[in-house]
Fold this sequence. Notes:
Elements: H1 5-29, H2 37-57, H3 79-103, H4 109-134, H5 147-169, H6 175-200, H7 208-212, H8 231-235, H9 242-269, H10 274-299
Amino acid sequence: MHPAFSVLFFTTATGAGYGLLALLGLLGGFGLIPADFWLGLVGMALALGLIAAGLLSSTGHLGRPERAWRAFSQWRSSWLSREGVASVATFIPAGLFGIGWVLLGDSGGWVAVAGLLAAAGAVTTVCTTGMIYASLKPIAQWHSRYTLPAYLIFACMTGSVLLNALLQGFAVGSTVVVTGATLATLAGWAWKLATWRYNDRLKIPTTANTATGLAGGTVRSIEWPHTEENYLLKEMGFRIARKHSAKLRRITQVLAFAVPAILLAVAFASQWPFAAIASALAAISQLIGMLVERWLFFAEAKHTVTLYYGR
């Protein structure tokens, strides 16, 4: 599949934003994070800013972005529409939580309820995003048991690393948060390796023979369907060389997982401001690495429509 940057940025930014929002809603709403005005303001602005930027960028790959609102009407059958509805609905409890926690400096009571609903909305939205890809049967690399959990794990991972950077920046770092961010990063790394191993061993059952119903012999095209590149080949038939794929996988592991884990360990063992610097660098490295991971997620996926073109 052709990796459009708007979609790469969308999945990376919203995953991190919803992960951070869920953690702020849970920890802030129940008083586990101090209700400090500037801490809350920066945290909520960062979470909602990432979400809004990601959602707006997702319209960039549409032919008619001004008609994106029509997607909301198909929520009964479309995961894309459900994602849109869930993303907008999540802003309501998130706004109420922000008013109570940031402006009023409260936690517990109705603020905790709003935070819990915001966290639930964030998790629901991430699930709908993952299901957009997991529900696509023509793409075997996505239609697997690894896709949906990956979206949840990566949202938790990037959200917790951002939360740790936020707390360290305000000199209220928590050993529990930095430990959780480290464990989430290691879990994301393990899940990504398992996903790659599964995809590399994947044997797609659909062939030109099964598509035509001709079991005997080998079905092949006498002539190519087209004499030049068309839209389907550019979007669905995008291919990446194996050596480039291996190189980008190594870059992903270094930037998204290895470097953040090392920097989080440094933050755990250091005092402020060194812990804050290490935490910020961990968040930056991880977000860049996740952009590379998202590029591979699309580039390595193969659509069965390419069978028509002899690929």
